[in-house]
């Protein structure tokens, strides 16, 4: 009976159950384990495997450029960052409430590290999310105008509970890019979807960046309405105090973090 059972499980692609089947059946034969308990163990193994696969998929789709975590962030070297506040943000209440996060500061002060760490926490806790370099996102929005796929792209971006827009700085923007970016932020605001923006441009200087005062007024009004603002300052974290280059601790793999992913649940746990 064992071989037909293996074949059926393989046919159903229940890889988690398949991986532990022999072990669980051997144990059951030795200990006389009741059938319901054996079935429960097999189903639990399958559920864990699917959760691990889903996490790996979310992390891959997030397009994280660096394997950074909040645990590896050098809080001791960045006194302008309130560690307790960042760890509170890692609880993801801002995401559940559809609030934004704006990180402003000079290059190298840790804006991207915090944003990536929070995005990773979102993925670990069942949310779909995506990291974008600001210029790459604006270029993608501009390219979508040529083949009239802008609506589809905006809809795709507005299916993500969280996106990070990194390095919104002094960019060479076309009017069409500015308009498309405003449409994106307006739609996400209307849907109460969270956006994390990192920038080295202070808010009054956004008028120079986007060149359209009425649009910037409307953009800042939406971005700041439900928003946490973190201002970072100080020397660049890219160099160690002795002048050598700093290194960043790498993040655990999806497999090693599956236990972490169980600590919270989310309404959006699908891949």
UniProtKB/TrEMBL annotation:
Q: Which residue stretches does the UniProt record annotate as biased composition, category Low complexity?
A: 244-259
* Domain AAA+ ATPase residue range list: 97-230
Q: Which GO terms describe its biological process?
A: DNA replication
Instruction: Please name the SUPFAM superfamilies in this protein's record.
Output: P-loop containing nucleoside triphosphate hydrolases
Q: Name one GO molecular function term.
A: ATP binding
Q: Does the keyword ATP-binding apply?
A: yes
Q: Please list where the region (Disordered) is annotated.
A: 237-271
> Which keywords fit this entry according to its UniProt record?
ATP-binding, Nucleotide-binding
Give the source's domain of life in one word: Bacteria
Q: Does the keyword ATP-binding apply?
A: yes
CDD domains found in the cross-reference section: AAA
Return the similarity comment.
Belongs to the IS21/IS1162 putative ATP-binding protein family.
The entry's protein name is: Transposase
* Organism annotation: Candidatus Accumulibacter appositus
């Amino acid at each position: 009976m064992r071989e037909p059972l293996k074949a059926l499980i393989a046919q159903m692609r229940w890889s988690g159950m398949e991986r532990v089947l022999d072990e669980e059946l051997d144990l059951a034969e030795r200990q006389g384990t009741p059938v319901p308990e054996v079935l429960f163990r097999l189903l639990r193994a399958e559920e864990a495997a699917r959760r691990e696969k889903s996490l790996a998929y979310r992390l891959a789709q997030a397009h994280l450029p660096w394997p950074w975590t909040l645990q590896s962030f050098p809080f001791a070297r960045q006194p302008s960052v309130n560690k307790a506040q960042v760890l509170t943000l890692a609880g993801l209440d801002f995401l559940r409430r559809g609030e934004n996060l704006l990180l402003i500061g000079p290059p190298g002060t840790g804006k991207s590290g915090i944003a990536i760490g929070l995005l990773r926490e979102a993925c670990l806790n069942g949310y779909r999310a995506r990291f974008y370099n600001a210029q790459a996102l604006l270029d993608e929005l501009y390219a979508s105008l040529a083949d009239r796929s802008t609506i589809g792209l905006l809809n795709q971006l507005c299916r993500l509970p969280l996106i990070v827009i990194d390095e919104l700085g002094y960019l060479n923007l076309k009017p069409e890019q500015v308009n498309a970016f405003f449409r994106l932020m307006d739609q996400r605001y209307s849907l109460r979807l969270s956006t994390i923006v990192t920038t080295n441009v202070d808010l009054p200087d956004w008028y120079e960046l986007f060149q359209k005062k009425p649009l910037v007024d409307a953009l800042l009004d939406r971005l700041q309405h439900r928003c946490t603002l973190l201002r970072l300052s100080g020397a660049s974290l890219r160099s160690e105090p002795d002048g050598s280059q700093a290194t960043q601790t790498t993040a655990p793999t999806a497999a090693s973090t599956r236990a972490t992913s169980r600590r919270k649940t989310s309404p959006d746990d699908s891949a």
